[in-house]
Specification:
Largest interface: A-B, 32 and 32 residues
Oligomer: homodimer
Radius of gyration of chain A: 19 Å
Helix content of chain A: over 70%
Order of helices and strands of chain A: HHHHHHHHHH
Distance between the termini of chain A: 42 Å
């Protein structure tokens, strides 16, 4: 398939938009920037997407699919290291689509379609799976706590994960967010889990954290 | 002092801006909107403030002062109810200046003065006091944990508090954020503290949470 076929251009637009949104911030990038970046005419871009929000809806769709695949395919963890690896995968997907997390509410408020898709993804799909994952950790004896504890832990992990890149970016001030920020996001989640660990996993916690920090340069 | 004296107008501009930013979102409000709301000319507003960001810097200054006074004047807690009351005060101040928390990074990135003031406030002033407050809770036996635990708890409380209104707004979708969202923000913090409570405070935790939820209509 040559580069000029429509379906190829469609994909190239989405991928260029993702790169530019992540690097420059979504609010600073127009459809004209994306077209110029690809060396295509604005008219060619408009043939595929009526406006920037249509591109964002597609990117959100890809993010949701990637994240659902990641969460659904997580194998039953046998150790805290497995949990950390799973969290690393989650943060890697978020990193890939990180522009979505820097100003999500503004995106959602201006786009009813995106808001609907996001709410379905969050409430009906992803959130129950996070709860189920933690319930599984409790079942096999890695963590212990009441049902209320586990639900509360899931919510706190959700909030801290959602906002981690935004928070860490603000802590680092004007310096650009670095990819190793992912490791510290995993560490935040492990710190939330720590007080619920059963005794036999407490030593492993320190080893997993030490390993994580060694990868955070 | 009549309504038309400059110092009075200065204060009225700041207060009108706060109301409009909170109600409509800072990004939707221009200096012209603020002037129109007050029934003054744009020129009169520009006599006091060169641009919108100068008003925001003043509002951030007021927020910082109010929050520092609140944190510094917190008396040594004797019970978990005292802790909850202190958290309620913190969330009340955040509610008063809630526009600051809906899109803070965008505000900080476009305004070097605000970024500097915010970093000084966060890193040098407020954050050490939060750590000290938790260390005090440990000292008088309300919570227990290693120094690492307490530092991690302080960071998690900071992140969840900072983003609570944004998160809860997104959960509620298009419905406007309600003031009772404050109580659920306090509850999030209490849920983070819970696993670190010493045994004698665990029963009180349930009572404090029940009381909080009864106030969340």
């Amino acid at each position: 398939m040559s580069r000029s076929t429509p379906s190829n251009t469609y994909t190239r637009i989405i991928e260029a938009a993702l790169t530019l949104f992540n690097e420059e911030g979504e609010r600073h990038i127009s459809t004209n920037h994306i077209a110029a970046h690809l060396g295509i005419s604005p008219g060619n871009l408009y043939y595929h997407f009526r406006n920037k929000d249509e591109i964002i809806v597609q990117l959100h769709q890809r993010y949701s699919n990637d994240m659902m695949t990641c969460i659904q395919s997580a194998e039953a963890p046998q150790s805290l290291q497995d949990v950390a690896n799973h969290l690393e995968n989650v943060f890697s997907i978020m990193w890939h689509y990180r522009f979505l997390f820097s100003d999500m509410n503004a995106l959602l408020l201006r786009n009813a379609e995106l808001l609907g898709a996001h709410n379905v993804f969050t409430r009906e799909k992803a959130s129950p799976l996070v709860q189920r994952y933690l319930a599984q950790l409790a079942k096999i004896g890695i963590i212990e706590g009441s049902q209320e504890d586990i639900q509360s832990l899931a919510l706190n992990m959700w909030i801290i994960t959602k906002y981690w890149f935004d928070f860490h970016g603000s802590v680092r001030g004007k310096r650009k967010l670095q990819e190793d920020s992912k490791h510290l996001g995993v560490l935040r989640n492990l710190s939330l889990i720590r007080p619920y660990l059963t005794e036999q996993y407490r030593q492993e916690w320190h080893e997993v954290v030490k390993d994580l920090l060694s990868r955070h340069r």
